Input
Amino acid sequence: MDQLLLNSGFPILSVLIFLPMLGALALLFIKNEENCRRTALVFTAAVALLSLTLLSGFDSTTARFQFVEMKPWVQAFNINYTVGVDGISILLLLLTTLIMPFCVLVSWTYIKKRVRAFMICLLIMETAMIGVFAALDFVLFYVMWEAMLIPMYLLIGIWGGPRRIYASVKFFLYTLAGSVLLLVAIIWLYMQNGYSFFIPDMMWQNYSTTAQMFLFLAFFLAFAIKVPMFPFHTWLPAAHVEAPAAGSVILASLLLKMGAYGFLRFALPITPEATAVMIPWILWLSIIGIIYGGFTALAQSDMKKLIAYSSVGHMGFITLGIFTLNIDGIEGAVLQMINHGVTTGALFLCIGMIYERTHSRDIESATGIGKYMPVYITFFTFFSLAAFAFPGTNGFVGEFMIIAGAFKYSLSQGNFPWLALASIPGAVLAAAYMLRMLQRKIWGREHNPDNSWLKEHDLNTREIITLAPFLLFVLWVGLAPKPFLNIMHTSVSALIQNFATCQAKAVAIAGTVLN
Amino acid sequence: MLFLPELTILGAGLALFVVSLGQFQPRTVKNITVYVLFIALVTTICSIGNNGTMFFGAFKVDLFTQIVKSTVVLGTFIIMLFSNPDAGVKKGTQPEYYLFMLMSVFGLMMLVSANELLAIFVSLELSSFTVYLMVAMRKNYTGPALVNGAALDSTAGHGYAGTFCQIGQGLQSEAAIKYLLYGVTASGLMLFGMSYIYGLTGSTELPVLAPALAKIFPAPVAIVAVLLVLAGFFYKVAIFPMQFWVPDVYEGAGNEATAFIATVPKVVGTALLIRVVSLIPPAGQEVTWILGSCAVISMFYGNLAALVQKDLKRLLGYSGIAHAGFVLLSVAMMGLYGFAIAMYYIVGYLLMTLACFLVICTLSRNGANLQVSDMAGLYKRAPLLAITFACSLFALAGIPPFVGFMGKFMVMVQALHKGYLVFVVLATVNTAIAIYYYLSIVRQAWCTDDQERPAVTPSLLVNTAAFFLLIAIIAMGVFADPVVNTLAAALSTTFS
Output
């Protein structure tokens, strides 16, 4: 239990997990739509504020899990309700809690039918997502991981666009099919570890190489679909395009991060040897994802689709960073996870706002609006710049660190840094597709559709309040990323340290066997 | 006192017999049945904790039997809460229908307690023959299909016309005949197996059989004998290779009768499956492989066939075959926890399936079969029913935090614990297949709008039952621990 710092006082993580659920229950008794919106906002905002107190109590000098709570759940199988956070999960947890109020805000007028059900879905979603990031028991993790599918399915399937049924079913089937084998892996690990589902106990255990390969395969299938990595990405554009604005934000900002988080939390520590074997493949898959996402985004005329494919590219950068397995790469990846959450979330919010007005997601129908909606375009420009990693924005810091990590990886292997070089076109492509969209939206062509009526409909106060924090964050991380890196630094270094030790041990064992 | 629950049910049956002699409104008959079943439920629950044997050891009462009996009566009671007053049977035959249902419940309760092969056979036949009659009693239809009381144009392309005409032409008789023939075949196989067992051991009493058979194992003849006896219960629970009756019977029987067939007998069937399998010594690897293979085939058969179904009851029938596979997989793992999890699973299945049938029976006022497309726009027409339906379908699909997930999860843990990785992987593949058809129903209910189908306001009783089932489905999933431990404790007293 030396990996844990038990929380004896206020059970903050449990409160964070179950407060949204309580909100969902409360909503069952509220009939008025306006009150439903307000209640949802109050609950998500309360969770967001409460989650900030985590920061004050968080000790960033240790890699141990903190704020840990442990309660027996199903004793017959030694399943416990165990939650806790370390330097990596706390950031993602905060991202979740902080983004949710804005999802409520952006849906204020966007969602007109079945408001109550929508807000209930959002709140249940929040419970499940916080649960995923806080879970230290594998069954709890899996329960939260799968439970997330139901509200997300309904968000897309009920409030989505014209092809919502196709998109929601595809989303559900894809992600579920990916994670069923995860369950088998979990049970296998439980057998191996003295009948315990406690995640930290499963890490760094030197399972046999064959077992690790199978485990890694199960992990990979589940997490690569969620990320999504290159050949498994086809559900993402469909789901993104059809989802309502809040759904797209949740998908892009939070759900995709779970795949990457899964790699960091499970694949690396539980199957280090298999990871080491698979690294080159995954790195090149990431590169393919980056380039492929970039080119496909370049060809889109639907703004949501464009951002969706750009996400494939960005997530490629994140997996690239994770699997370089050095401090720059992983820290850059975690930072980029948050950056992508903020930037892409904000872009989807922006697109949602324009869609609410023009009822079209086509770039052509929103050309030349810079003249009429200056406030909107200002925000949009900043987020676009951040999306293609313009220096001074958050995207630059993250991508820079990841590419530096990729260089280091190649050099440490004694190779020419092909990997880093190969990722550069991705960054260029990102600039190309974002600038193309930006140019069309601000100025357009000689003959733009008449959008002058939008003059009266520039962003209102609620929308400005929704977007301002995102902008603040873009610049904050862009100019001073240190506080964020500090929080995760100890945990990431410990991860790399342990990975190296484990590798050395495996090599030593292999050596003795050979001798 | 040991026999009190059964006596209450018998008394209730007698009361209905008296009722059948007079002329009563369907609603009155239903209310009488609800009241007598409520009394039976109370006496059965009060009898938990009794222990002892009767009738020269042929009838055994212990914690396990009484828990199963309570579940049986509870399930029947819930079915009565949501069934339509006429229960989908021919005019004037309601009292007889309820009489047969109560006799079937009586047979099932005797079956749970039966501690001797002949007692098992007699109670099984009693519980089966009454159900054959219940299937055949479904009323005929003339005129257009009615959904929620409003006539629908059969040319509108909903596919009612097809189903509906067939019912007019005696689909229920076909179903009853099929059910009867398959049932008789299964009984024949079972009797044959029993004769082997008697020949091998010279006894029909289960407590004597177990040690006597243990000496003979693993002789092929003993394994064949036990498997033949199992055939009867495979039939009850609808497991491959005795599952062929399911789709036609589910489609041909009335909604209320199907709700009964799909749930209550399966619980008892599982209990008896456990009883018979426990005759096999734990070292019986061969039997585990045979049973496990049947389980996995059931899963694939049920799930793949369910993918293409349009009729809701048929679909639920096939899904039931797949779930029975999970139950059998758990039973095949032997051991106390394997059995306890099988019971947990089947009780969870009872709750989930009852919730589905609650929705079907409430929506189909005139007792017609419902298609998957009839669920369109349910969220608006009947919000509580839509929530109940969605939760029970997600639970059946095995999505946490519902009872279906916990059941599947524990079955997998148990199977992997015993080292049957192949079965576990195939079972997970099935979980992924199954999600599609459950999702397609949820999609109809939640993601589509419908203008022509009218709104439904369920009665207070139906709402109460829906709430109860919802809470039970979630609570049994979240708090699985006490349930499994109670079942394990109860089973350990049975087998000690």
In short: The first strand of chain A starts at residue 4 and ends at 6. Residues 68-83+155-514 of chain A form one domain. Chain A touches chain B through 36 residues (CB under 8 Å). The longest helix of chain A spans residues 482-514.
